[in-house]
Amino acid sequence: MGEQKRKTETKQATEFIFGKKNFKWMLIGLGVIALGFLLMSGGGSDDPTVFNPEIYSWRRIRLAPAVILIGFGIEVYAILLNPHKH
After folding, report:
1. Cβ(18)–Cβ(59) under 8 Å?
2. Cβ contacts of residue 31 below 8 Å, gap of 6+?
3. Distance between CA atoms of 83 and 66, rounded to whole angstroms?
4. pLDDT category, 50, cuts 50, 70, 90?
5. Most CB atoms within 10 A, among 12, 18, 41, 48?
6. In degrees to the nearest 10, what's the CA dihedral of 33, 35, 68, 70?
7. Residue 3: pLDDT band with limits 50, 70, 90
């Protein structure tokens, strides 16, 4: 009786919550976030007794955090995007 029950079970089709469009936008957002972190890197000094004022450049203080926030915005858009809507 138990074997017959197993044989008659129908397999349910698994459907993902996110579609191809969502994953595409998520990868774009991750790329933008990675770009922001790359823009933020550098500016240090090899010698710890020497101060390098390049660490306070416009690119590291203003541009890189803005690019990272834009990347997070793209990620939110990717999560809220309806993949079934054309």
Report:
1. no
2. 71
3. 27
4. confident
5. 18
6. -90
7. low
Rounded to an integer, the average pLDDT of 49-62 is: 90
Beta-carbon contacts of 43 under 8 Å, excluding residues fewer than 6 positions away, are 52, 54, 55, 57, 60
CA distances (Å), 32 to each of 7, 12, 37, 85, in order? Answer: 49, 37, 9, 25
> Which residue type sits at 15?
E
Whole-angstrom Cα Rg for the chain: 24
Q: Which residues contact 58 (CB under 8 A, 6 or more apart)?
A: none
